[in-house]
């Protein structure tokens, strides 16, 4: 195993706690974060199904936000909507992440394999202090997980065989797709995501720090 | 200026001193490094001109090496040729680079914008301790500098306007192309590359450490 690639939202960063805080700043009710996230898979699916050409996650987040605000009857001004979309570039890491990644980086290549685009992943890394070696993921493949293209494009970009790369996620479905694409798999539970592994993943670790050990 | 993107070969790393050392390990004469590098632009040009579809720099380096060894009448075995191509993933940084980049990273996004592919740039960063925020450059655009697509794809990937990104190089021709593509420019002289700026670049600095100041 030469590289570990990581899911971002939920696995590396606490999207939910962070977005509750960000949306509260604009006077939006606490359920806004969850309602917005409920738009995530349906909007990704518009691209995965081919109904929409590949657009980045800022575009899809904006479409989802407009739907949610419409449902809430909220006429938040345009400039605040744009600021809120960019709030997905500023999410807090889980407390074990920076130390765990720093340890893993000593012996492995580490990179995000997120549905976030390169700019979002870079800004998130700068904000959260994530010491990635490279930024991989959806934009390289112009596809969205769980499309196998995303996992394979990330391994290909590193010049590695699929089984030399391990996908790390707090989502069993992400790992099922990574395994089907030929990658190795590591499950890390998170309180807001999947809390139990549902398959015999190559590694199950309670935190990134344990993963490094 | 929000991001600085860097040429690799000659600007960030001492390709020449490193490759003289690498080739000497295989008993090759000292001129091998320079002869090999002379194949660099002609091989890139096969892609830039459209005569060859985009292939990564390992492929082009291998073609160039075979030509040089043929000229030298050297029948170096296949496995050593493969090792030598990968030696371009292990080049020493100039002495000011790691400290300068570490300082620049505190206030800016930093990334390579090299004709090296992602795997080569990642391996080089691991070997040389280069603290990049992302890996940009030729592979993102599937084109080779000085094609304007390479500079623009790097800025686009960061979600930045072209004039928010500064290209850093020890090659005046690289900076002419970056400026023509809309980027800002910084010249850092290197003893084996261009030693003097030939235009009014936005910044001229003797080292990466001075650039950070």
From TrEMBL, chains A, B:
<dbReference type="InterPro" id="IPR023198">
    <property type="entry name" value="PGP-like_dom2"/>
</dbReference>
<dbReference type="InterPro" id="IPR051540">
    <property type="entry name" value="S-2-haloacid_dehalogenase"/>
</dbReference>
<dbReference type="InterPro" id="IPR036412">
    <property type="entry name" value="HAD-like_sf"/>
</dbReference>
<dbReference type="InterPro" id="IPR006439">
    <property type="entry name" value="HAD-SF_hydro_IA"/>
</dbReference>
<dbReference type="InterPro" id="IPR023214">
    <property type="entry name" value="HAD_sf"/>
</dbReference>
<dbReference type="InterPro" id="IPR006328">
    <property type="entry name" value="2-HAD"/>
</dbReference>
<comment type="similarity">
    <text>Belongs to the HAD-like hydrolase superfamily. S-2-haloalkanoic acid dehalogenase family.</text>
</comment>
<dbReference type="GO" id="GO:0019120">
    <property type="term" value="F:hydrolase activity, acting on acid halide bonds, in C-halide compounds"/>
</dbReference>
<keyword id="KW-0378">Hydrolase</keyword>
<dbReference type="Pfam" id="PF00702">
    <property type="entry name" value="Hydrolase"/>
</dbReference>
<protein>
    <submittedName>
        <fullName>Haloacid dehalogenase type II</fullName>
    </submittedName>
</protein>
